[in-house]
Design a protein that fits this description.
By secondary structure, this protein is α/β, with parallel strands linked by helices. The chain contains twelve helices and 14 strands. Helix 6 packs across helix 11 and helix 9 crosses helix 10.
């Protein structure tokens, strides 16, 4: 939902004073930047007129008119006509055209592909899950191509970009490609280049936790927050973070690799070579492993939890204990407005973990909080795939990424 807007004497809507907007640039060489600025403002604030846009972005009204005409011709912006007001000449309002373009997100996880379609308004149009027994790169890339072809043709809109996410860490000797929560054999596979050459659109590659945080930032619990962290339960467990509205990625896309932080020294052995890693106690794989050891089926986790089965109850209690310490650590390092829990664990289990948390005192323990210290996400079990599509959408319309450039590390290369 767009933030509350006020009106000026001409009746044009203006964003609330606290809203932050990127500034435009008048030189012709900045046209691409200005296009992104205007798309981002219309996405965030809803319908606006040309004068309001020009005042917000600090470029000329004529420059706004030229770009709006261009975006309208491309089907990305809609002319909503004049807004009737009691004061001044009613302005013509413009808005994002949700059906004007789409982005695709693909999550490559252990044993499955999940694909999502977002329209330009950030609305999910479709989610498709494909189970795969063979996770060899050649096989998976063929299926990714088929998914992109089928989904993009099915929606009949311009494809703005593709986001691909997979479990990390990326390119770390002794960690990457090792263990049941990663993808063995993917070292050196350039997913971005392969799909970009095949479909001639921008392709971004990131880890699943970063992508899930992007989804929460665009249309989940992080939508109106500048600083938040998301703990993502995939097969393993990772951390995605936004700090001052920017994703925290690290030099090689591995920031937030909390799954391999030791929380129980001398504890359960981990495939990374350490013992007592968080991933061994508070991940979906850890839950599945616990169920199998007890002679129970991982597919029955939600039903067993609903029935109060002691094995599941004990796992939830232990996971919450280790997560409580990790959340306190995350708060002290990043000072987020809130920590969000999300991912592929069934929501009732996430709710139970949340209710059992006993987070120690940290810099987040203060009386003037506006957000809970910890809360559940809003994007569901497809959050990483949704975030992948959101990542591509964000890249297409965010003016900030003009500065970041396309040569940043994009995960496995």
């Amino acid at each position: 939902m767009a933030p509350h807007s006020d009106s000026d004497s001409t009746g044009e809507a203006r964003p609330a004073p606290q809203a932050r907007v990127a500034m435009g640039k008048n030189p012709g060489r900045a046209r691409s930047h200005n296009r992104r600025v205007l798309l981002e403002i219309l996405r965030r604030h809803g319908p606006l007129g040309r004068k309001a846009l020009a005042d917000m972005v600090q470029i000329s009204t004529q420059a706004v008119t030229n770009i709006i005409d261009e975006l309208s011709a491309e089907g990305l912006v809609l002319d909503l006509g004049r807004k009737r007001t009691s004061r001044g000449q009613p302005p013509i309002l413009y808005a994002i055209n949700p059906g004007g373009a789409i982005s695709l997100g693909i999550e490559i996880s252990v044993g499955a592909l999940v694909a999502t379609v977002l329209d330009l308004g950030g609305n999910p149009r479709e989610v498709e899950t494909l189970q795969l027994a063979d996770m060899a790169p050649e096989r998976v890339l063929e299926e990714c191509e088929r998914l992109v072809e089928r989904l993009s043709e099915g929606h009949g809109a311009r494809l703005m970009g593709i986001g691909v996410v997979m479990p990390g860490p990326f390119g770390i000797e002794g960690l990457s490609g090792i263990g049941p929560t990663t993808l063995p054999g993917w070292e050196g596979v350039d997913v971005r280049r392969h799909l970009a050459q095949r479909f001639a659109v921008p392709v971004l590659v990131d880890n699943d936790a970063n992508a899930a945080a992007m989804g929460e930032m665009l249309f989940g619990k992080g939508r109106n927050l500048s600083d938040f962290c998301l703990i993502y339960f995939g097969a393993g467990i990772g951390l995605g973070a936004f700090l001052r509205d920017q994703p925290l990625r690290g030099a090689r896309g591995n920031a937030g690799e909390i799954g391999h932080i030791v929380v129980a020294p001398g504890g359960l052995p981990c495939q990374c070579g350490q013992a007592g890693c968080l991933e061994r106690y508070a991940s979906r794989h850890a839950l599945n492993e616990t169920l199998v050891a007890a002679g129970l089926a991982p597919a029955d986790a939600a039903a067993l939890h609903a029935a109060g089965h002691p094995v599941v109850a004990a796992w939830v209690a232990e996971a919450a204990r280790h997560l409580s310490l990790m959340i306190g650590l995350v708060e002290n390092i990043f000072d987020p407005e809130t920590v969000i829990l999300g991912g592929k664990l069934p929501e009732p289990l996430l709710e139970d973990i949340l209710s059992r948390l006993a987070v120690p005192p940290s810099v987040a323990h203060r009386a003037d909080r506006l957000q809970p210290r910890v809360q559940l996400g809003r994007t569901g079990q497809a959050s990483a795939a949704l975030g992948a599509a959101a990542m591509a959408l964000h890249d297409a319309i965010s003016p900030r990424l003009d500065i970041a450039g396309a040569d940043e590390p994009e995960g496995p290369a």
